[in-house]
Specification:
The complex is a heterodimer of chains A (about 425) and B (about 300).
Chain A (H helix, E strand, L loop, with lengths): L5 H20 E6 L2 E6 L2 H19 L1 H10 L8 H8 L1 H21 L2 H26 L7 H19 L3 H23 L4 H21 L1 H4 L16 E2 L9 E2 H5 L6 H27 L1 H11 L1 H6 L4 H27 L9 H14 L4 H17 L7 H15 L17
Parallel strand pairs in A: 3-4
Antiparallel strand pairs in A: 1-2
Chain B lengths: L2 H34 L6 H22 L4 H28 L8 H22 L4 E2 L7 E4 L7 E4 H23 L1 H11 L1 H6 L4 H27 L1 E2 L3 H16 L4 H21 L5 H15 L14
Antiparallel strand pairs in B: 1-4, 2-3
Helix pairs in contact in B: 1-5, 1-8, 1-9, 1-10, 2-3, 2-4, 2-8, 2-9, 3-8, 5-6, 5-8, 6-8, 9-10, 9-11, 10-11
Classes of the chains: A mainly alpha (about 425), B mainly alpha (about 300).
Protein name (chain A): High-affinity branched-chain amino acid transport system permease protein BraE
Main location (chain A): membrane
Pfam families (chain A): BPD_transp_2 (PF02653), DUF3382 (PF11862)
């Protein structure tokens, strides 16, 4: 029975009017100490009317729309041959080798801006992979991941500032300190249920940021820390002139000085860090520990019944995830040469989380692709920059409704009981 | 001699003022959690939208020349509550209803997306700068000696106490006496059973979101008048604080949310008054972590039994 849903349509129209009428239709203007109002541009008003009309018609003709949707042909799936081919270990290995080789030769053919962007992508890949351990594999929603990133960045920056520590020592120290923070935070909170954990970690991220902002005597507060040393290659610097007692890269190899060398070096360094991260995670996944993470995500009670200690397992996931954030933070500090608490807001956590979610929780290839999409798209669509966060929030909602398992969900050979 | 005493009373009053608005927002979290067991992450943004609507209404009334105080207040409350109710309703429809019954993390992530979306809608529509308004209600009573140091209870604070009290009473009556209130309580007990008994639980869930949003609007109007400054980012912190309050009191329990809100407000005010303003947020979150450590069910919460 198809009929017109007049009541529902009118109700939803009223809701749209209430939602948009005042908030979008009128704009507050500050005039001295008092406020005045100005109407929205006709453009916005037309959009509002369009949205209202769309919702009205959608609800009015719901039965017809549902029927039409049922008649739509299903999207063609991937042909069987290809999916079988991708299951082959040799093919997969070849694919990865190809990807890695392409990533290594990339900086020698690309321009400086592209390499810079690619380095940024790699930082996000590293963060995404780290958070993927916590969220995707262990199933713990961590909304304060950026806190560990900040710990890593500030560890290196502070050590470099006060003790003139170099990048490589700093990298180890940053990882260790972030791991320590992860351990200390994880110890009390990991006994909590999932959604509590989300909020506590969120609070933790905020605490870190507030502390960095306010401990001016140590961190220079909102002004941030500048002049952080760039990484060196076995003690070779990438400057025109070497510092006291050091040698520069171009002098050592007897080539002309080129500022691109440093950009390329930073890119390759980031790539090496990402590959190391991937390697470590893939090894961990085959260990009992990695299997326990996934088991814990699927069914905690069953795990406990099998004698696994949930707190220990979650704690390792949390700590290892934090360590990678620490590495990424250290690299970020070295690359930028300047850090301030501004770089470590909640939005950053949300972006990293979105990378994991978009890619498909637990899937590493998915995380890498999502990191590329999330970083490159805003660069390409500069004119939409203002709408970036808006679209980003919308994307998160739509993805959860449409494909909660992500674009490339992790596939595992598995059997399911039919009930 | 009595100066420290009056200073303390002042901090206490400030804390209770802010705390009662936290309580109003926290009720929204606690009711939604009590019924569907999910955290409405976008709730803080609803509060922020409530503040914006209040400012818009107040500015509009002032432009029209209707500047009687009672009219302005009633107008701001009424319109702000209507608009945020629509937001609460839509949030439930878009970000929660399609995802009910799956993995618990999925609605939480979609709600985070919703929260970012709403924040940016307001930022794009209204600008990201602070918007300030001269205070509507000025003056107050002094407690203690007229000369020298004394505590002040401003009329604005009094209005906050009175409005919060009226709202809470109305809510309590609604929950305990009305038919819909009974349905809400039944849903909190056992949602499947309630459904079997012929109650449209979808409506009840929508209603909880709407009530929560309307209460957040009340808090939004009150706090924006009290501080006099708003921007699109106030919702994040307020939401986080209110959630802390809800957990502190025991999530799922309405009296708990009120108690938690007041306690958090006072703790913050005392930290700000005796130590430093910058660290009051740190203290609030540390309090949250400590509570979850030693009493995960909160002050008035019931222990939850884990079922397979």
């Amino acid at each position: 029975m198809k009929r017109l849903h007049f009541k529902a349509a009118l109700l939803s129209l009223a809701v749209v009017v209430a939602l948009t009428g005042l908030l979008l239709g009128v704009r507050l203007e500050q005039q001295g100490t008092s406020l005045s109002l100005s109407g929205a541009t006709p453009d916005v008003l037309w959009k509002m009317a369009g949205a209202g009309l769309f919702i009205f018609l959608f609800n009015l003709l719901r039965d017809w729309i549902d029927a039409a949707r049922g008649r739509l042909p299903a999207l063609p799936g991937v042909p069987g041959g290809i999916s079988q081919l991708s299951e082959l270990v040799a093919v997969r290995r070849l694919f990865w080798c190809f990807v890695i080789a392409a990533a290594i030769v990339f900086p020698f053919f690309a321009n400086r801006g592209a390499i810079d962007l690619a380095t940024l992508v790699l930082i996000y890949v590293m963060l995404g992979l780290g958070l993927n351990i916590v969220v995707g594999l262990a199933g713990l929603l961590d909304l304060g991941y950026v806190g560990f990133y900040a710990v890593g960045a500030y560890s290196y920056a502070l050590l470099a500032m006060y003790f003139q520590v170099g990048f490589w020592t700093g990298l180890v120290a940053a990882g260790a300190l972030a791991a320590l923070f992860g351990f200390l935070l994880g110890f009390p909170v990991l006994r909590l249920r999932g959604d509590y954990l989300a909020i506590v970690t969120l609070g933790f991220g905020e605490i870190i940021r507030i502390l960095l902002n306010n401990m001016t005597w140590l961190t220079n507060g909102p002004n941030g820390i500048g002049g952080i040393d760039k990484p060196t290659l076995f003690g070779l610097e990438f400057n025109r002139r070497a510092a006291e007692g050091a040698q520069t890269f171009h002098e050592f190899f007897g080539i002309a000085f080129n500022t691109n060398h440093r950009v390329m070096f930073l890119y390759l360094l980031a790539l090496a860090l990402v590959l190391a991260t991937l390697f470590v995670i893939n090894r961990l996944l085959r260990m009992p520990l990695g299997r326990a993470w996934e088991a814990m995500r699927e069914d905690e009670i069953a795990c406990r019944a099998l004698g696994l200690n949930p707190t220990h397992i979650k704690l390792t996931a949390f700590t290892i995830g934090a360590t990678f954030a620490g590495f990424a933070g250290c690299f970020f500090a070295a690359r930028q040469g300047f850090i301030s608490p501004e770089s470590f807001t909640f939005i950053e956590s949300a972006i990293i989380l979105a990378i994991v979610v978009l890619g498909g929780m637990g899937s590493q290839l998915g995380v890498i692709l999502a990191a590329i999409v999330m970083t490159v798209l805003p660069e390409l669509a500069r004119e939409f920059n203002e709408y970036r966060m808006l679209l980003f929030g919308l994307l998160m909602v739509v993805m959860m409704i449409w494909r909660p398992q992500g674009l490339l969900p992790m596939k595992r050979p598995h059997l399911e009981l039919r009930t | 001699m009595t100066e420290p005493l009056y200073y303390f009373i002042q901090q206490l009053l400030n804390g209770l003022t802010v705390g009662s608005t936290y309580a109003l927002i926290a009720i929204g979290y606690t009711m939604v959690y009590g019924i569907i067991g999910m955290i409405n992450f976008a709730h803080g943004e609803v509060y922020m939208i409530g503040s914006y609507i209040a400012f818009i209404v107040l500015a509009a009334l002032a432009l029209l020349g209707l500047d009687s105080l009672a009219l302005m207040l009633i107008g701001a409350f009424a319109i702000s509550m209507i608009v945020t109710s629509a937001y609460g309703f839509s949030i439930e429809r878009v970000a929660y209803r399609p995802l009910r019954g799956g993995n618990r993390l999925i609605p939480l992530i979609s709600a985070i997306g919703m929260s970012i979306f709403l924040q940016n809608v307001v930022r794009l529509a209204q600008g990201s700068r602070d918007i300030a308004m001269p205070s509507l209600i000025t003056g107050g009573w002094s407690i203690g000696p007229e000369e020298g140091f004394h505590a002040t209870l401003s009329y604005m604070q009094l209005v906050i106490f009175i409005v919060t009290f009226i709202t809470m009473t109305a809510l309590t009556l609604f929950i305990s006496r009305s038919r819909m209130g009974r349905a809400c309580r039944a849903c909190a007990e056992d949602i499947k059973m309630t459904n079997l008994l012929g109650i449209n639980t979808n409506n009840v869930i929508a209603l909880t979101f709407v009530i929560g949003a309307a209460l957040a609007a009340v808090a939004g109007v009150l706090l924006s008048l009290y501080y006099g400054v708003i921007n699109p980012y106030i919702g994040f912190m307020a939401g986080l604080k209110a959630f802390t309050a809800a957990v502190l009191g025991g999530i799922g329990s309405i009296p708990g949310a009120v108690l938690g809100g007041l306690l958090l407000g006072v703790t913050e005010a005392i930290t700000a008054g005796y130590f430093s303003t910058e660290y009051k947020d740190v203290v609030a979150f540390s309090l949250l972590i400590l509570i979850l450590l030693f009493r995960p069910t909160g002050i008035l919460g019931r222990p939850e039994v884990e079922k397979v």
